[in-house]
Amino acid sequence: MSMIINASNNAYERQSHRRYLENWNGDGWIPVPPELEAKAVEYCPYCELVIEDGRLVDIVPTERPPEPEPVVEPTETERLRADIDFLAAMTGVQL
Known about the structure:
Helices cover 24% and strands 26% of the residues. It is an alpha+beta fold. It has a three-stranded antiparallel β-sheet with strand order 2-1-3, covered by helices on one side.
């Protein structure tokens, strides 16, 4: 597996069908050493890249934003009422 990471937004790309030792996306991307690929997959984009002399030497996790609140599903009564309202609107019936 070959991987590169974008130094500005911590997005990564992988190539599983061939191996690149260099950067294939141009400026702003850095090759990820094989020993850091697991960290990149686990932490990106919530991480800080440790870059020394233009080379990625470590990936440090940062705090992830909180998970969004779960969406409350409508009750069966609410779903039935929505169905009735829809059918009434489609058939021109006034409720």
